[in-house]
Amino acid sequence: MVPAMVSAMVGLVLAGLSAGLPSSAPSAQSTAQSRAPAAPATSLRVCADPNNMPFSDRAQQGYENRIAALLARELGETATYTWWPQRRGFIRTTLGAHECDVVVGIVASAGNVLTTAPYYRSTYVFVTRRDRDLQITSFDDPRLRTLRVGLHVIGADYNSLPPGVALARRGIVHNIVGYSIYGNYAHASPPSALIAAVARGDIDVAIAWGPLAGYYARHSEVPLIVTPVATETAGYGIPFVYDIAVGVRPDDHALADRLERVLAHRRGAIDRILREYGVPTVGATAAAAPAAHAPATPTSAATALVVRQPCRSNGGDGRCA
Question: What residue ranges define each of the domains in the chain, with the CATH number in brackets?
Answer without folding.
Answer: 122-238 (3.40.190.10)
